[in-house]
Write the structure tokens for this entry.
Amino acid sequence: MARILPGQTDIYALTDSRLALGRSVEEQARALLDAGVKILQYREKHAHAGVMLEECRTLRRLTAQAGACFIIDDHVDIAMLVDADGVHVGQDDLPVPEVRRLLGPDKIIGLSTHSPEQAKAAVAAGADYIGVGPIFATQTKEDVCAPVGLSYLEWVVANIRLPFVAIGGIKEHNIAEVTRRGATCCALVSELVGAPDIADKVRAVRAAMREGN
């Protein structure tokens, strides 16, 4: 098990089989972990519960072998069943204090935020880290809110001491702009799992991140 938070590593990768050029969740995970990614979130919005459970069991094993942190999107029950390192929830999901009651004090809880008010509320609720975004427009998540832009990211950098991950429409071509504003950890979905060569793309993204520092 690995308790690794945004800020302790640079890339926060998410699975998405719809964008992965036919790769299975396991194939996505192996490629990302082999490329040195240390936080992996399972996010498969259209899978059946039984399939999700089996895929998460596989990813739990792979992330444990790689010394990487395994986060599950939304599904607290599956996170408990596979002993994931934590969960990531949104503003319309179970409240952080209730998730904490289920998972206990040692698991990681991340919360998506889109405004200063939500960021401050996340701190008060006991989240371990927050998602900051969407920075740019994104098509990888349904029912997503409008982009909050770089101004909210800058506000978080100046005002919130909680670890955070920047998310939403972040690509190799714009990630330097994000790191230049103070983000040290960025979440990427289609840019990584949709790349012909995931390892090459991870290397390119890391190089682009360094350009903004």
Summary: The chain is about 40% helix and 15% strand. Residues 115 and 152 are 7 Å apart (CA to CA). Strands lie at 11-14, 39-42, 69-73, 86-89, 108-113, 129-132, 164-166, 186-188.
